[in-house]
Design goal:
CATH class: Mainly Beta
Strand order of the largest sheet: 3-4-1-8
Shape: elongated
Strand content: over 45%
CATH architecture: Sandwich
Helix content: 10-25%
Number of domains: 1
Structural class: alpha+beta
Radius of gyration: 22 Å
Number of helices: 1
Order of helices and strands: HEEEEEEEE
Oligomer: single chain
Distance between the termini: 50 Å
CATH topology: Immunoglobulin-like
Largest sheet: 4 strands, antiparallel
Length: about 140
């Protein structure tokens, strides 16, 4: 009888241990905030090499709210599938052929929808050359 209780206790502990290790994590989201001034005709366009994220954006005017003043575009990336993708942010005018500036984030999404930024590459020109550093992708 003692052996059966001991075996049941060991199996119970093993099941708890396995369940804790296999528990799904909450999916992460990523945000990128970029300076923008749509009153000049410039805006950020976003593309992905593999459509793994749902991407939404929101523009917030800068402090003071002066006419023609810029602000910040904040992009929220929500993973829809696992895999690897390049997320490209291009700043330019819709009627011009090439973007003025470009930032590329190479990202990996695991099966639990956890996001890892593998690398970042930025080519800044024009008004974006004034940026002190490349904007980071914040993962929560």
């Amino acid at each position: 009888m003692r052996t059966k209780k001991l075996l049941a206790a060991i199996l119970g502990c093993a099941m708890l241990f396995l369940a804790a290790g296999c528990a799904k994590k909450e999916p992460q989201t990523a945000t990128v905030s970029l300076p923008s001034n749509p009153t000049t005709g410039y805006s950020w366009k976003v593309e992905q090499s593999n459509d793994l994220f749902e991407i939404t954006s929101e523009f917030a005017e800068g402090e003071g709210g002066a006419l023609g003043a810029g602000g910040t575009d904040t992009f929220t990336l929500t993973p829809q599938a696992s895999g690897e993708t390049a997320v490209m942010f291009m700043y330019g005018r819709s009627w011009e052929e090439a973007p003025e500036s470009e930032i590329v984030y190479n990202v990996k999404i695991d099966k639990n929808m956890q996001i890892t930024v593998e690398s970042v590459k930025a080519e800044m020109a024009g008004s974006m050359e004034q940026m002190p550093e490349t904007p980071q992708m914040e993962v929560k």
